[in-house]
Amino acid sequence: MLEEALAAIQNARDLEELKALKARYLGKKGLLTQEMKGLSALPLEERRKRGQELNAIKAALEAALEAREKALEEAALKEALERERVDVSLPGARLFSGGLHPITLMERELVEIFHALGYQAVEGPEVESEFFNFDALNIPEHHPARDMWDTFWLSGEGFRLEGPLGEEVEGRLLLRTHTSPMQVRYMVAHTPPFRIVVPGRVFRFEQTDATHEAVFHQLEGLVVGEGITMAHLKGAIYELAQALFGPDSKVRFQPIYFPFVEPGAQFAVWWPEGGKWLELGGAGMVHPKVFQAVDAYRERLGLPPAYRGVTGFAFGLGVERLAMLRYGIPDIRYFFGGRLKFLEQFKGVL
Fold first, then answer.
1. 25 Cβ partners below 8 Å, 6+ apart?
2. Separation of alpha carbons 194 and 197, rounded Å
3. Catalytically annotated residue among 241, 314, 319, 323
């Protein structure tokens, strides 16, 4: 039995076969185990001698099994290393690459347009205070924008909102309804002249449909300095139209009321490809009460007033509307639907 077992172990081709041999000889029902169970039927002297023989066979089998197992493991490892070897001289495999979201693409394009005109892009917090979102922008308490159906109000417990210079801001908190609060924040922390654009996400409690969403993106513009007029505003919007829609585009302004500008206007751009006017956003000259609110806040922080004798203009437009036109998207809800087939269309678009 020993010679037969040692030969079988030495010729085992893999670990599975070796495992079967171990069970055949040393398992609970193995040949050697059965021999040992029969020792009790032998006379004492013969039992002792036979027991020593069987223990020696068991030790030899265990040593042979261990040695063969080690050899098979080393051979398997060597084979795996050879099979999985990487040729470092070959060119690397192209990894899967994602793409930018269409809103991000449109937002970057708008920022680049205004960057070429000398504007700086800045960002502000999405959780905002009632003061920056409404009060400082000449939106009184009775204004419809403060209605609970338009604004997501927050409890504010355990949350610290910082002001433009790191000071703690008190008062009710909300998810900003527009990017305009950044106008006030930037003016408090800086002195004119300056030109900025503020891209960002805003929130309004609205019923969603193909053209309306509770979460959307805006691009805000603000220019402040001495002698700034509506002519400068028209020039900025005209340059935007030319960059977006080409040399045949035109700009149209219509009077409209916004609390934080005076006079206020709604601007539209002639879209040559579509052959129609597109209403893109609102604009106007910064209301004097906004400048007054900024200087009052600066004085509370111990800063000198900086907005007496200056003028400025502001404008805002929706990023989703332009992206829908640019990429032929029929429903605003596609932007946040998370469908991979929709998003893959924009892979590689720069």
1. 1, 5, 31, 32, 61
2. 10
3. 314
* Dist. CA 221–CA 317, nearest whole Å: 9
Q: Which residue is catalytic, options 41, 83, 149, 339?
A: 149
Predicted pLDDT at 306: 97
Q: Identify the active-site residue in 195, 204, 217, 298.
A: 204
d(CA 306, CA 224): 11
Whether 197 is catalytic is no
- Contact indicator for 170, 164 with CB cutoff of 8 Å: no
Catalytic residue list contains 243: no
Active site residue 204: yes
Active-site residue (options: 261, 265, 269, 294): 261
Compute mean pLDDT per 10 residues along the chain, 350 residues long, and list them: 82 85 81 78 80 83 87 87 81 78 95 97 96 95 77 84 93 94 98 97 90 93 97 97 94 95 96 91 97 97 96 97 92 91 80
Specify the pLDDT at position 308.
95
| Nearest CA-CA partner of 75 in 153, 150, 162, 15 | 15
The answer to whether 316 touches 218, Cβ cutoff 8 Å, is yes
Catalytic: which of 178, 195, 287, 298?
178
Active site residue 345: no
Reduced to 3 states, what is the DSSP secondary structure of residue 110?
helix
State the virtual CA torsion across 112, 117, 118, 120 in degrees, nearest 10. -40
Catalytic residue status for 287: no
Residue keyed to tokens 């990894």: 95
Q: Report the predicted TM-score, pTM, of the whole model to 2 decimal places.
A: 0.72
Instruction: Give the tokens for residue 103.
Output: 């809103």
Identity at 257, one-letter amino acid code: Y
Q: What is the mean pLDDT of the chain?
A: 90
